[in-house]
Model the fold of this input.
Amino acid sequence: MPDVATTKMPALCEKCKPEVRGSIFVSDGWQNVRREHITGSILTLFGKSLRFGVHEDGDRHDGIAIAVQLEPILVQAIAEDWNVGCMITDDAGQCRRARQILSLRWPKISFIFCFAHGINNLVKDVLKTSFSQITREASAAVNVVNNSVKWLRRARNLMNKMYGYELSLCSLCVTRWNSMQACFASLSRVKSALEMLARQCHEDDDFPRDLAVFLKDYFWSDLKRVERVIAPLSLASYRLQRDENTLGDVIKSYADIFAGFKQAPQYSKQLIECVEKRWKKCEQPLFMLFIQHTLQKIGSCSQH
Done:
């Protein structure tokens, strides 16, 4: 598959890019409609994302192979007068190893992982904790409704009857941003209609067993509690998906998540362990937090 031609840069970017220090180079993997695995690369400048190229993936995915694939793209960017100061990839598979290899060959470039992707991985960790039961039940119920013409139509009829409009139920997907919060919220906002659906049809021979949770009080109370606990995760995910972020945003995001999880005594121990596991990988934010904390202590001591 031939490489896609580089997008024509705006005149301002073309004029300024040699003088700009620290253009950000981002690379990630996708799958096209032909189910081919490809590596897409973009450059960010002045808060704008510019497509740099698309390249076909090889059949090896070890750290050395990924580094060998990424380096020519980086060399091409530098050859086109881009002053690359940072290269970002996700943290899946051997990407961390590839960044370590490239950092030795390019010591003046910072190689870091995508913090938004790290938040998404944190969501996956959370799904495996005490939330696993409510997550499994909510996901199964939504899938049954969405995948059945009969039950979806009945649910929508009740929504129209009770609210005057229809609302969709969002499926939970561990690789989709904020899908857990969206799934739980979509169930909660049509609670009465779903309860009525279960009460009217639970004696039918073909009533799906997964929809019986709509009649359980614990299901709705747990759903509300869990949605409130994971709210900081959703806010952090939305914040870190913006084009213009700083490491300060990362620090605030993890601090908000930690504070939110700490307010849930029933789940706090497991959830905080998930945060700390991911937090330990964030070397740059930890360094900034150390400096900030030290300066605050010095300022506090000088006041006394």
